[in-house]
Amino acid sequence: MSFNDLDLNLLRVFDVMMREGSVTRTAHELGRTQSAISHSLSRLRHLFHDKLFTRDGGVMRPTPRAVELLPDISAGLAAIRASIDRHQIFDPATTRRNFRVGLTDYHAMIIIPRLLREFSMQAPHATLNIIPAHGIEIASSLHLRQIDCALTGAVIKDDPSLLKIELGQDRLFCAVWSGSEIARSTMSLETYLSAPHLQVSADGMSNGLADVALKELGLRRNVVATISNYLALPWVLRGTELIAHCGDGVLQILDEASEVTLLSPPLPIPNVSAWLLLHPQMAADPGTVWLKEILSNIYSDSQTKKNDILEKRNS
Q1: Other C-beta atoms within 10 Å of 116: how many?
Q2: What SS3 class is residue 144?
Q3: Residue 23's Cα: distance from chain center in Å?
């Protein structure tokens, strides 16, 4: 049997058999007779020159060759299913599509818990992959359709080939260890400039908005180290006099156990915009529109929660 003679329904039989381990259950799920499933298995064995499944009591056990084939066949069927879903009437309650979202670690730690709850509730049969979103890699991933959309900061907001929706803005604060001398004193410009700084930078080299603001004043801060993500910030700051910058969105996840205090910087620093990015050709795709609405609503709710915390903090 050559590829030209292949009936793709055979691969569906293989995929379900790997999951169910039973001719009876496979026949039931596919709406076919047990005899038809047995015939399909015979054709699959001829195609792959392997038994594929051997009976062990009441269970059909896959052979090593079947285990080897499973990832490629399952991924191929999932891609075909997603392509068909994308061009039919979209219903999140029934779709089996795989969605891929690019998130910076800053946005991820704020919205992932709510995103996973909303996604699984509205689309119980779909799957979601959350992909790290870093700088220019985001644009490339969107152009290559490796991700459906991305939520990121202002790094690539000037890319004219992408559709950009501004969801909101975060104000930059100085994050310090709660037990530090800096946390117990006034954050003056002199204190700020003399203290060691920790820069959060995915590539270990990029300057932050604080550096741009300082440069306009003819000043520089003392950056002694960089880390690649915000998730490690509480542990890195603990027991030090380091200053790091982060958006006020982290107020929603900080507690006493984090031992992080947020202080207003002693100089004006521009706010950080949150941008939802997608390829223009995906703007009319019903599935992408649905996912975009979920992300937009979650971000809007998080902004409301953040502003409530800021209001209580300032009262």
Answers
A1: 12
A2: coil
A3: 38
Residue 259 DSSP code: T
Helices marked H in 54-208: 64-86, 105-122, 135-143, 189-194
pTM of the model: 0.69
Nearest to 263 by CA among 280, 276, 278, 246: 246
pLDDT tens track, the chain, 315 positions: 556 667 888 999 998 898 888 999 899 888 899 999 999 999 999 888 999 999 888 888 999 999 999 888 887 887 777 677 666 678 999 988 889 999 988 888 889 999 999 999 999 999 999 988 876 678 878 877 788 899 988 555 566 778 899 999 999 999 999 999 999 988 999 999 999 999 988 776 767 889 989 999 999 999 999 988 888 889 999 999 999 999 998 888 888 888 999 999 999 998 988 999 998 878 878 889 999 999 999 999 999 998 898 888 877
Determine the Cα–Cα distance for residues 160 and 89; give it in Å rounded to an integer: 30
Cα torsion 290, 296, 302, 305: sign: negative
SS3 167: strand
- What CA–CA distance (Å, rounded) separates 292 from 17? 35
Phi-psi region of 135 (alpha: psi -120 to 50; beta: other; left: phi over 0): left
Helices and strands (H and E) in the chain: how many? 10, 12
Burial class (CB in 10 A: 0-12, 13-18, 19+), 87: exposed
User: CA 227 to CA 246: how far, in whole Å?
Assistant: 13
Cα dihedral 302/308/314/315 (nearest 10): -170
State whether the Cα torsion 87-91-92-94 is positive or negative. Answer: negative
Query: Could you tell me the two tokens for 26?
Result: 């496979």
Task: For residues 91 and 96, give the distance between their C-alpha atoms in angstroms, rounded to a whole number.
Answer: 10
